[in-house]
Amino acid sequence: MSKDIQVTIWNEYVHEKEYEEVKEFYPEKFRQKHAASLKEQHQSIQQIYPRGIHHSLAEKLKKGKTISVQTATLHDKEQGLTEEILDSTDVLMWWGHVAHAKVKDKYVERVYERVMEGMGLIPLHSAHASKIFRKLCGTHSQKLKWREDGQKERLWVIAPGHPIVDGIGECIELESTEMYGEHFDIPDPDKIIFISWFEGGEVFRSGCCYYRGAGKIFYFRPGHEEFPIYENDEIIKVLKNAVHWAAPVNGPQIKYGEVEARE
After folding, report:
1. Taking the model in full, what pTM does it have?
2. 192 is a domain residue
3. What's the pLDDT score for residue 1?
4. Domain CATH code at residue 93
5. Which domain holds residue 35?
6. How confident is the model at residue 42 (pLDDT cuts 50, 70, 90)?
7. What is d(CA 189, CA 257) in angstroms, rounded to the nearest whole number?
C-alpha cells in the first residue's frame, strides 16, 4: 500500500496577527498614508482566517486518505524550514506576502536543494516574489501589475488534459479577488495550466508549471488574504491535484561527476 503524500504548508503568518505586530513590516511612509485602510484590512483577514491561512488550507487538504499535512511558519524554529521538516516533506506549499526579505538565505538554499532533489513546490499568490521562487526561476524581477478592487475573475483552463485540472470545468469563476495582470516577468513556463481574465480587462498566467532538477513546481495565483478564496471547492481541488502532480516519483538516482565507461 502506497504511503500518503506528506505536505508541509509554510506560511509567513504575518497578516493574520494583530495589527500592532504587523506594522513593522510596512515602510513608515506607507503606514502613514494607509494607516486606516491597513487596520481595516487586517481585521478582515483575521475574520476570514482566524487561525492563519496555513491552518485553513491544512484542514481542507487533509480531508481524504492520500494527503498528510503539517504546518510551519516564519516564527518557528529555523523559520519553520528545519532539515527534519524538509526531509519529511514531499510537497511544500508556500504562502508569503510582506515578509519575503525576512526569510534567511541559508534556509532558502536548503529548500532549493530539496526541490532539486525531488521535493515539489507550490508557491501561492504573492509568493511569486518569494526568494525561493525567484531563485528557482533564475530571475530577481517577477514583476506584474496588480489592483485590489475585489472584482470578478475567470481562470480559464488551457491545458485540459493535464492532471492538475482533473475534475475541473472549462473555467473557475471567482466573484471577488485581487487583480494580477500581465506582463508577468517570469521565465517561460514549461506548461501553462490557467490563464485568468479579470473584469477590468487584464489577463494573467495564473497556473504555471516548471521542472527544476528532479523537482516540480506549480505557481498558482488565486488566494489574496482579504478574500475567502480558499473556501472555494474548485480551488482546493486544483491544489489537491497539484500536490499529487508535484509529489516526488521513484525515479533513477543520478550520479554526477567522473564515471567509468560502461562499454
Report:
1. 0.92
2. no
3. 46
4. 3.40.50.880
5. 5-138+208-246
6. low
7. 29
